[in-house]
Each structure stands twice: as C-alpha cells, then as structure tokens.
TrEMBL record:
Protein name (database record): CAAX prenyl protease 2/Lysostaphin resistance protein A-like domain-containing protein
Signal sequence coordinates: none
Stretch list, region Disordered: 1-23
GO biological process: CAAX-box protein maturation
Transmembrane regions listed in the UniProt entry: 40-61, 81-102, 123-142, 162-181, 209-227, 233-252, 273-290, 310-328
Matches recorded under InterPro entries: Rce1/LyrA-like_dom (IPR003675)
Domain (CAAX prenyl protease 2/Lysostaphin resistance protein A-like) ranges: 164-269
Highest taxon of source: Bacteria
Length: 344
C-alpha cells in the first residue's frame, strides 16, 4: 500500500517574471522630491545659490577689468553707464539661472512670467498706462505747490538721444525687478505654499492662497529692498510694497509680467528723465526738466521723490482700478500656469 506524500512536498518555485517588485520611495527621496519634482524649498535655495554665485563671479570680473570708482557725479546723479551695468548684469544672471532651473525641473521657461499670449499688446498697454497715470500725479503736486519746475536742461537732438537711452535703461530696470521678484521665485513659492495649504486645509483654493501669500512675502521683501536707496522714506517703502502687490494683481489676471514691465518702464522713465524728479531717492544724469520739491516731505515726497508723498496712495487706487477694468481675467490667468504638467 502506497502513501500519498505529494501534499507534503514544498511548492515549486515560481517562474521569473518581467515585472519588478513595487519600489516605495525612500525617506531621503521624499525629503527632496514630491509629486511635482524637486520640492519648492530646495528649488528656491538652489536658485538663490546659483544667482549669488553668478553675481559674485560677475562682480569679481568687472572689478578686475574696471576698478570701482565714484558711482555718482559731483551733482549727486548716477551716470548712465554705471546704472546700465548695475541693472543689466544681474538681469542676465536671473535669466541664466531661471533657464537652468527650468531644465532641472523640466518646466517650460515661459511659465515664469515672460511667456503667454498677447505679450506685445500687454507691454504696449503697460507703457501707455505708466505715463498716463504718472502725469496727473505730477500735475497735482505742481498745482498744490509741492513741486516746482525750474528749467529745461536739454535741447535739440539731445532730447531724443537721452530720452531713448533712458527708456532702454528703465526697460532693463523693469525686466530685472519684475522677473527677479515675480518670475521664478513667485511661481516656485506659490507651488510650495499651494501644496502646503492643500495638505493642511484640504481646500480647492490652495493655488490662490499660495499665490497671494507668496505675493505678500515678496512685496514685503521688495519694499524693504528699496530701503538701501539714498533718500528713501517710510512712505516710499510703503509705496514700493503696494506697487509690488499691484503688479502681482496683473500677474494673477494675465499670467504674464509684460504689462507690469511696460508700466514699470515708463513710470520710472517719466520720473527720472521726463519730469526730472527723484525716483526712490535716486537722480539720474541728463534729464529733460529740472525740478525740486517744496514743503513737508510727507506731502512733497522730499528727497525720496513723488513716491514718498502720501498723495500717491489715491494714485495707486486709480492704477488698481485701471488694472481691474482693462485687464479682465481670462483663461490665461496665473492658475492656468500652475496646471502645466512637467515635461517628459
């Protein structure tokens, strides 16, 4: 009589398969990477480190080629060449580092504010509104006796030559200040805060909360950064912060920085070159008109310029209304940029 022992034998080994076991992400990987790639905090740190390295290198090279000298002329104005270098080199650094980060994170570079549709119409509209909004402000200061026009300083072809030079200069200023504070850094901090708000509050409005929280943070930094300008005042710092929030509203509605760049360009150009007033405490060479403030700095702006006058606050409200009524929010708004997938 034979006994059945087959049930006691071990199971034969399974044949090999092409499927590999599921790999769970390690804790170390989770620290650096999330669902959207490199986490926002590390991205910002890397951006800042790369930009600092670029600026340090550029500063070292320029000091070797051209040793530093006086940055202001005897009349306390800033020469064109020095100001152009001081703005254009950092802007090139911001562009380079933004491009590097876009490749690292596999995102299209246009989502950081310089892409989108209607770039030229938005830019031209911003150029127009910048000078349109500045001129009545200057007119009010003049009629109220807080600003005096002394004389015209330029004649003939010099009017157009220096006018064009300073227009290019302030275009670069607008590019640098807008792209640095409301470009890659704004997008990335918004991305990180949106994820945090969604995780904590489970809210469908996490992107909006992330955007406006980062807008407040960078607007505060933008305002404080103007404190290094000569002759700056508390009202001037407040104005800079409010202007930053105003430009964030443009970015939120259009998904683009081009309107803000255009407005920034002609607003600064109108102050510095056309009307010859201080801009955040800075005077430039070869401006068209000579002027000087009169009266209490709280009203005239003093050495800060018109931006240091409390009269600018209703002007800012006017500009916000212009933005709301001339830039209706469309499908090109900022939240659409946040929906763009990572490139494969």
């Amino acid at each position: 009589m034979q006994t059945q022992t087959t049930d006691l034998l071990p199971d034969p080994p399974l044949p090999p398969t092409d499927q590999s076991p599921i790999e769970h992400p390690s804790t170390l990987r989770n620290i650096f990477f999330g669902d959207e790639g490199l986490r926002a905090g590390w991205s910002i740190l890397l951006f800042v480190a790369l930009l600092a390295a670029f600026l340090f290198t550029a500063n070292f090279i320029t000091h070797k080629i051209h040793p530093p000298s006086h940055t202001t002329s005897p009349d306390k104005t800033i020469p064109y060449f020095f100001m152009f270098l001081n703005e254009s080199i950092p802007f090139l650094g911001v562009c380079l580092v933004t491009w590097i980060m876009s490749k690292i994170e596999r995102r299209p570079i246009g989502i950081y504010g310089l892409g989108g549709s209607s770039k030229v119409p938005h830019f031209i509209a911003g150029l127009a509104w910048g000078i349109i909004c500045l001129s009545p402000f200057i007119f009010i200061l003049w009629k109220a006796g807080f600003l005096v026009f002394d004389q015209r300083l330029l004649f003939g072809t010099d009017i157009f030559r220096y006018g064009a030079q300073w227009l290019v200069m302030f275009f670069v200023v607008g590019l640098l200040e807008e792209y640095l504070t409301r470009g890659y850094l704004q997008y990335t901090l918004t991305r990180g805060l949106a994820g945090l708000f969604h995780w904590v509050f489970k809210t469908p409005h996490s992107r909006a909360l992330g955007f406006w929280t980062s807008a407040v943070i960078f607007s505060l930094l933008f305002g404080f950064a103007h404190g290094s300008n000569p002759g700056e005042s508390p009202i001037g710092l407040l104005t800079a912060g409010l202007a930053s929030m105003m430009f964030c509203l443009v970015l939120w509605r259009t998904g683009s920085l081009w309107w803000a760049i255009g407005f920034h360009t002609t607003w600064d150009w109108g102050q510095s070159y056309l009307y010859g007033v201080a801009d955040s405490g800075i005077m430039v060479q070869h401006h068209l008109l000579a002027t000087h403030p009169v009266g209490k700095p709280l009203l005239s702006g003093g050495t800060t310029g018109p931006e240091g006058s409390i009269i600018i606050l209703p002007i800012i409200i006017l500009i916000v209304l212009v933005i709301i009524f001339t830039l209706p929010r469309t499908h090109a708004g900022y939240t659409r940029l946040m929906e763009r997938p990572i490139e494969s």
